[in-house]
Amino acid sequence: MRGRSARLWAAVGAAAALTLVTATGAHAEGRGDIRVVSAVVNGGKSVTVGTAGKVTYSIAITVKDDSGVKKVSRVSTYKQLSGYGFADWTGVTCVKKSRTTSVCTATMSIDAASIRYTDDIDTNRTAGVWTVNATVNANDGDYWISDSIAAYQVRRAAKFTVAAPAKAAKGALITVSGQLTQANWESRKYQGYARQTAQLQFRKNGAARYSTVKTVKTDGAGKAGAKVAVTASGSWRWYYPGTNAVASTASAGAAVTLK
Fold first, then answer.
1. N or C: which end of the chain has fewer CB within 10 A?
2. Would you indicate the residue range of the signal peptide (predicted)?
3. Exposed/middle/buried for 218, CB within 10 Å: 0-12, 13-18, 19+?
4. For every residue of the chain, which 3-state class applies, written as one string?
5. pLDDT in tens, 223-258
6. What integer best gives the mean pLDDT of the chain?
7. What are 26-72's pLDDT values in tens digits?
8. In angstroms, rounded to a whole number, what is the distance separating the alpha carbons of residues 129 and 85?
9. In whole angstroms, what is the distance from residue 234 CA to residue 207 CA?
10. How far does Cα 37 stand from its chain's mean position?
């Protein structure tokens, strides 16, 4: 059996005995009037992780105390429901905005090659909504351990392919096909994503954006296909809107020109 991740917050249960509830509903424990005012993860975007390489992202934490902010001494993040996580805190930089307020930006790193060692059963289940905790310290000795200061999505990467004939007569029916795959963090490979709603989209030459023409379900292997009538030259693509656990993705455009 694989060892459970050191980042699994087994200690959370013990710490909970010391906590009290703030006005915002987040559990916290500390001393004095220092507080986390807000926290923004990855600029407000979800974090998408594939099967290889490292992903780094920021957590910008706004902290306030009447004596000024000294530091952020701890940042952790993990899935809300399970307590599992695999993001490493690699550092933090604080910028003073006023006498009482600083924005401290923590850097987090996820190594795709190491994810599979962080859950005894299946690390893919760790995708979804994550939460952030931080310990903040003031110049006068005040400190605050703030739980659930931000929520965000950590999602498995997805890919979509597309295939269509390069030329067709106006009014002819063509088949546009493709395959939707998602990152499997256990095998470190992409696998077909079955029974998902996919949108077939078209952009006429010269148009600014794609428009959805048909919506279909992928089959058991993640493959999608649809027959459409050609009315103009342009590009066809597949689009998947994503979920909390799997990222949205769009295929490249397959150009079809009128004969």
1. N
2. 1-28
3. buried
4. CCCCCCCCCCHHHHHHCCCEECCCCCEEEEECCCEEEEEEEHHHCCEEECCCCEEEEEEEEEEECCCCEEEEEEEEEEECCCCCCCCEEEEEEEEECCCCEEEEEEEEEEEHHHHHHCCCCCHHHHCEEEEEEEEEEECCCCEEEEEEEEEEEEEECEEECCECCCEECCCCEEEEEEEEEEEECCCCEEEECCCCEEEEEEEECCCCCCEEEEEEECCCCCEEEEEEECCCCEEEEEEECCCCCECCEECCCEEEEEC
5. 999 999 999 999 999 999 999 999 999 999 999 999
6. 90
7. 556 899 999 999 999 999 999 999 999 999 999 999 999 999 999 99
8. 11
9. 9
10. 23
Q: If pLDDT is split at 50, 70 and 90, which confidence band does 120 have? A: confident
Residue with tokens 């599979």: 116
Q: Which candidate, 225, 58, 83, 201, places its Cα nearest to that of 148? A: 83
Q: How far apart are CA 147 and CA 83, in angstroms?
A: 12
Mean pLDDT, residues 119-123 taken together: 87
Tally the C-alpha atoms within 13 A of residue 149's C-alpha that lie toward its C-beta: 26
Task: For tokens 């809107």, name the residue.
Answer: 241
Q: In terms of Cα–Cα distance, which of 21, 22, 36, 41 is closest to 69?
A: 36
Burial zone of 122 (CB within 10 Å; 0-12 exposed, 13-18 middle, 19+ buried): exposed
Predicted TM-score of the model (pTM) = 0.85
Strands 167-168 and 254-258: parallel
Amino acid present at 141: G
Domains of the chain in start order, with CATH, are: 11-155 (2.60.40.1220), 158-258 (2.60.40.730)
Please give the pLDDT value at position 133.
97
What is the CB neighbour count within 10 angstroms for residue 4? 13
